[in-house]
Design brief:
heterodimer, A: 404 residues, alpha/beta, Aspartate Aminotransferase, domain 1, Aspartate Aminotransferase, domain 2, 7-stranded mixed beta sheet, 4-stranded antiparallel beta sheet, 38% helix, 14% strand, globular, B: 127 residues, alpha+beta, Sufe protein. Chain: A, 3-stranded antiparallel beta sheet, 5 helices, 20% strand, iron ion binding (chain B), ISCU (chain B), Iron-sulfur cluster assembly scaffold protein IscU (chain B), NIF_FeS_clus_asmbl_NifU_N (chain B), iron-sulfur cluster binding (chain B)
């Protein structure tokens, strides 16, 4: 077995070889390298045709009209365009926006920027299972609320919000509903004919496509309008200027085509691997699964290992590429804001690991992971003064710690 | 984050992990840090009648640098008098382990752990 084992598919996925093969055909002189906006020759026409096929493939995965798909550089840009674009366009109607504390930074930081520009934002606090309720949302809505943004699948804990119900509420109130679906496309069924979602963000690289390309679904009926955030040649019906990167778009189309074809088998296979992983570690004492137990995707599993610090756990799991609920590995020493928003203590948030399983994960890799996790927990707990105190029956909350 | 080989060595083969009987007359304990900050260090020293630290043990909840820093100080304090051990500076620890700037607090915590253990000894033995 090749080490390290990649279990960080929620961070990014490798490009599917079928996608890479397709992508390479749109780069060189021998391939279709033309500018899709060139109207005066074959090179342009053929590139445009390839882009339109990809647009249809993306629309098909989520049951949308291809004319509702706007290409962007990724889900971060899609979130920016959706939220800023809609807030700007409808600002005369009101300047109040609603989102959730556990959203991706691409949403939260966009909201922060809008606050600096004079908007008011309500950040909903989810239940400890990571989900918000319709009642919570209804209570936050004001007459001047214009945009609500809620992610489909949470990137850290994998819980799935009730997008259908939230959509019904938003539509009944005439509020624009944006959904960040970066972690959802190809992982859960999305039917945009049925869901009352006005704007939805997609990313290619979370679904075996390349990095640097994404899309924003912009509903036509009822028509949603956006203030462009990127100005230039008027590409993408004026909503997002910039020469279309044909090779990336074709690759995203191919990735989404494969997802539509294979996602149901893949979900079954990944669910079985997830069950194996969870069953393999759940008997360790003081281990907790984070997020709602059933309203979740099988790809993302977030587990807290109490009395073991996250970064040292990641070091002990050096043959397994996972990510920590603690941001100790990055420049800041703060624990994950997502886990904190669930009401989790700092120390438990510090002790959390996200395992994300994907298309190329094997049973053998999961077995090895279980073994390594057991060894790591045993080693680190043998070294942990907190574990000793827990074993001695000392409640850590009663200890007078000296914060530093 | 790229750690130095010394940090990785101490993390993978920590020296002197364990605990002494805290009621033993020559044993003193220093516990510093807080779980909420992601680091707790427990350092124990065993001091002989001549006032020399004969042995030291640690247990640490924390990142690789915190574990390495505490492992290192257990080696450093052994054979030293209390006064000498008190001279160990966090900058020496950080330098020895080539800690990156964001991990300097781990070396500060290790210095604090030595000082806390010595203070505990002095308190136990009437100052």
């Amino acid at each position: 077995m090749k080490l390290p084992i990649y279990l960080d598919y929620a961070a990014t996925t490798p490009v599917d070889p079928r996608v890479a093969e397709k992508m390479m055909q749109y780069l060189t002189m021998d391939g279709e390298f033309g500018n899709p906006a060139s109207r005066s020759h074959r090179f342009g026409w053929q590139a445009e045709e390839a882009v339109e096929i990809a647009r249809s493939q993306i629309a098909e995965l989520v049951n949308a009209d291809p004319r509702e798909i706007v290409f962007t550089s990724g889900a971060t840009e899609s979130n920016n365009l959706a939220i800023k674009g809609a807030a700007d366009f409808y600002h005369k109607k009101g300047k109040h926006l609603i989102t959730v504390k556990t959203e991706h930074k691409a949403t939260l930081d966009t909201m922060r920027q809008l606050e600096r520009e004079g908007y008011e934002v309500t950040y909903l606090e989810p239940h400890t299972d990571g989900l918000i309720t319709i009642e919570m949302l209804a209570a936050a809505i004001r007459p001047d609320t214009t945009v609500i943004s809620v992610m489909f699948v949470n990137n850290e804990i994998g819980v799935v919000q009730d997008i259908a119900a939230i959509g019904e509420l938003c539509r009944s109130k005439g509020i624009i509903f944006h959904v960040d679906a970066a972690q959802a496309a190809g992982k859960v069924d999305i039917d945009l004919q049925a869901l009352k979602v006005d704007l939805m963000s997609f990313s290619a690289h979370k679904a075996y496509g390349p990095k640097g390309i994404g899309a924003l679904f912009v509903r036509r009926k009822p028509r949603i309008r956006l203030e462009a955030q990127m100005h230039g040649g008027g590409h993408e019906r004026g909503m997002r200027s910039g020469t279309l990167p044909t090779h990336q778009i074709v690759a995203m189309g191919e990735a989404f085509r494969i997802a539509k074809l294979e996602m149901h088998d893949e979900i079954k296979r990944i669910s079985a691997l997830r069950d194996k992983l969870v069953n393999g570690v759940k008997d360790i004492e003081q281990v907790f699964l984070n997020g709602h137990p059933t309203k979740r995707v099988p790809h993302i599993t977030n587990i807290s290992f109490n009395y073991v610090e996250g970064e040292s756990l990641i070091m002990a799991l050096k043959d397994i590429a996972v990510s920590s609920g603690s941001a100790c590995t990055s420049a800041s020493l703060e624990p994950s804001y997502v886990l904190r928003a669930l009401g989790m203590s700092d120390e438990l948030a510090h002790s959390s690991i996200r395992f994300s399983i994907g298309r190329f994960t094997t049973e053998e890799q999961v077995d090895h992971t279980i073994k390594i996790v057991h060894q790591a927990i045993e080693k680190l707990r043998a070294m942990s003064p907190l574990w000793d105190m827990y074993k001695d029956g000392i409640d850590l909350n009663t200890v007078a710690w000296v914060a530093h | 984050m790229a750690y130095s080989n010394k940090v990785i060595d101490h993390y993978e083969n920590p020296r002197n992990v364990g605990a002494f009987d805290k009621d033993d007359v020559g044993v003193a304990t220093g516990m510093v840090g807080a779980p909420a900050c992601g680091d707790v260090m427990k350092l124990q020293i065993k001091v002989n009648e001549q006032g020399i630290i004969e042995d030291a043990k640690f247990k640490t909840y924390g990142c690789g640098s915190a574990i390495a820093s505490s492992s290192l100080v257990t080696e450093w304090v052994k054979g030293k008098s209390l006064a000498q051990a008190e001279q160990i500076k966090n900058t020496d620890i950080a330098q020895e382990l080539a800690l990156p700037p964001v991990k300097i607090h781990c070396s500060i915590l290790a210095e604090d752990a030595i000082k806390a253990a010595i203070a505990d000894y002095k308190q136990k033995h009437g100052g």
